[in-house]
């Protein structure tokens, strides 16, 4: 394996662990030739190699602790400024006196920018880390959650930073004074399980720690406001927006039905859960030639050929799908009854038009429309987000089974 470099950001909500900020880790190349060994020994050598590389980076990790102000980040920022201060005039002197002067100007500006930004960033991280640590020692879980939510609102300028910092300092000062009476009162009302001495001690610690936490937050917000106003803030912008996907705890499984239900001469196309018209949970399985309806115990309730299916949607209910079974015999019987009825009606109309109306009964003597031989449709209720997908797959599979359209399903 070749050499590698990475930077580590870490943040944990536990008070015992403090965040790291851009801790660099460098791993040397791992090379072995003419290897004759076991997989275990090779894996052990790889693990030991990278573990020692991580151990060697412990110093940078300690220097990246925000509790210490991330001095490694300050050194890295000052190093970038010094490199620009040296390299820019060097490259500029190759182009003449004007380029040399411009190199000095830009190099000095870069040095000042990196030193100032590194110092303010170090102060921001130091003060913010101590403020969070003191809050974890003195605040209740609800107050701590509220404080973390307020810290997510970053100031956009020095004025905004000072305003937010003074607000947090005032709230912390009042909270420290009020906590001196709040903690014993909570003990008296029985809302917390600590003893009276513990409640009083927590209140006394809060009187001293809460103002210090507020002052540290004032310093951190002011420093961040200066960085944001100058455009030096290190705001991490995500490359891609998050995609929110709901977690569906269902029982459907394509692999299960492929091995237990679908024959080898068919292809499983779609599986979804639904509710029948009797409000019983069912599973609908579409294959290349059949539609299976199974109950919760995976017992087949109906097995319908796709050639005999006619579906329809309910325009008032976005979850309902109606499936009508139309076998060739039923279709032929309906067509025959329709033709006989039309023949009788047309014959009576022809007789009525050629014979006086007085000698024939009224038009109500026409034979009534025969009762429909069509069965009641099967009604299923699906997730509205999956109903259209189910209908699309069902229609495509039915056309494919009838050899209509292009053979897109295999």
Automatic annotation (TrEMBL):
Chain spans, region Disordered: 346-377
Composition skew (Polar residues), residue ranges: 349-366
Domain of life: Eukaryota
Entries under PANTHER family matching the protein: INTERMEMBRANE LIPID TRANSFER PROTEIN VPS13B, VACUOLAR PROTEIN SORTING-ASSOCIATED PROTEIN 13B
Protein's UniProt name: Vacuolar protein sorting-associated protein 13B
Native source species: Lygus hesperus (Western plant bug)
